[in-house]
Amino acid sequence: MTRTWQISDVTDAALARIATARLAAAHGVPSLERTRLAVSLGTQLRQCLTKGGVWRLTLETDTAPDTGKGRLRAVLAPEHDADAGGEPPWQLTVRSSETVPPPASQAGAADPASLAEALLGADEDTALVLDRLAEQEDLVAFHREELQQTNQGVVALHAELDAADRAQREAFAAEREARTEAESARRRLTFLADASAVLTASLDHHEIVRRLPDLLVPKYAAELDVWLFDQDTDAGREPAHPHAAVVAARTGRPQYAAAHPGGLPGVDDQPPSALHPDRPVLCVPLPTRHSPLGVLTLCPPGERWDPDDAVMLIELTRRASIAIDHARRYEHNRDIAETLQRALLTELPATPGLDLAARYLPATHGLNIGGDWYDAFRQPDGAVIAVVGDVTGHGLRAAVMMSQLRTALRAYAVDGGSPGRLLTRLHTFLHDLQPDLFATAVIARFHPDESAMTWAAAGHPPPVLRMADGRVRTLDDKPGAMLGIPLVQEIADHTVEMAPGSTLALYTDGLVERRALGIDPGIERLAAALGTFDPDALASDLDGSADGILRPLLSDSERDDDVCLLLCHRRV
Asked: How far apart (Å, rounded) are the C-alpha atoms in residues 366 and 208?
């Protein structure tokens, strides 16, 4: 169905708009769509009246045969296309929700009743639209409130996120600080362990003192001084020491001398030192069980020390003091043992037809002095006994035990007896006297009326014999067991011809034994060295020959054990 209106003035426009609204209502167009249609049409009609001319409004309605619903299409165009200048027509289509029979008559005249009815209908539509708008406003207000609450929640969430971010940054900062402190602590502990190993590696207290500057300068101290109380100094050249060092020596507590307090744990503050007025000074005593050995004085590498570094330096000083004290005790015991050892080593007797040369070298590493010994003496029948021995253990106890064995051997030899018999009696003596101490020994007996030499050994390296023709032989006949072991034994004698011009070498294991190689290669080297001497040199300078043997054999030695060598040469 199609309806058409010609519009040339305001009255025509109002009637056309009223008719359109009524037709839309009759056709079942929803109120909101009707209002939209009326408003849009009114706007276009005002524009058309402004342009002037005659305009044609066409309303087309149709109904879908399957659903019974239709649509309303409004088209506004000039009566003649030329009047519009080619402007496209305005059109709008709305859909209806239900089919309503069209009115019996088309709106035509502008009678008051029709106009009033149209106005009332428009008011009803407007009221419906206003109701819908009110509903939309309530809905908008609800959504606005929700949005406001959401915004508040977002703001609160941002605040929580900011707080969480700050907490996380603080946690990261604390973790970095803890990691830095842990690394610093690990570095200090590592340094302390390494420095302690360096200090305790030496048994020379002078060497320990010399190593301290290498360990601490320049990382932990710009300079340092070690004041040992009993250190020998030139007369009248006693070095000056800071007042804080004197206080540390008197009180036994670390002292810090500076213009401002150091705040170091366990350290007393003192006024600035007159010797170092512009620099802080840390004076740490070297403690022992009884009294300090001295004082270590340090100047910081920078303006002052970190408290943890100061604690580490105090601990290192304590360990250095222990190392120095142990080294001094070792040196004291070593000197006593060496003095006793040398005092007990006898002068070699002058014997017709037999030259003797002996060498004793104390160990230079470790407290290994006091076990090795040699001796030579005459028996009542004119025979000469030459002996070399080694007591297990070291120090004063070994030296004392060595002296007792030497004395017992001389006492037993007065009654005569062969080397094997003498060693057997020494074995019984040592087992009864010191059950937990053992020894090795080798004895050779030379008689001026006999060309043969008798010897016996108890757990000792074998003698080496250079014969008159220059050949060298190791006397490796089966020896007896060590002296003092819990075993009943009779040590056998061995006899070998020893013509004039022959040389016998008795020695201890310190001369030939090396940790990495054992003892056999050293014995072979000794035999080779003995074989290289000229016979005249052995006859004329046996002492020089002894030195000539020691030099090559000890060139690779760590000197961690005593060395004894006794050369016996039959004169021609």
From this structure: 15
Can you give the pLDDT at residue 107?
43
Compute, in degrees rounded to 10, the torsion defined by CA atoms 106, 109, 114, 116: 140
Give residue 344's pLDDT: 65
Please report the sign of the dihedral spanned by the C-alpha atoms of residue 259, residue 263, residue 265, residue 269: positive
Q: Which residues of 501-535 are buried (b: 16+ CB within 10 A; e: fewer)?
A: bbbbbbbbbbbbbeeeeeeeebbebbbebbeebeb
Q: Is the pTM of this model over 0.70?
A: no
The per-residue pLDDT for range 218-236, each reduced to its tens digit, is 989 999 999 998 876 554 5
Q: Residue type at 96?
A: S
> Under DSSP, is residue 2 helix (H, G, I), strand (E, B) or coil?
strand
Question: Sign of the CA dihedral 434, 439, 445, 451?
Answer: positive
* For the chain, percent of residues with pLDDT exceeding 90: 43
Calculated CA dihedral for residues 84, 87, 89, 92, nearest 10 degrees: -130
Dihedral sign, Cα of residue 63, residue 69, residue 71, residue 72: positive
DSSP string across 404-446: HHHHHHHHHHHT---HHHHHHHHHHHHHHH-TT--EEEEEEEE
Which residue from 425, 371, 428 is spatially nearest to 400, judged by alpha carbons? 371
112-200 vs 10-26: helix axis angle to the nearest 10? 70
- Per the CB < 8 A criterion, the answer to whether 101 and 75 are in contact is no
Mean pLDDT of all residues belonging to the chain: 85
pLDDT at 81: 59
Pairing relation of β-strands 472-474 and 503-507?
unpaired
Which of 344-353, 354-363, 389-398 tops mean pLDDT?
A: 354-363
List beta partners, residue 378. 384
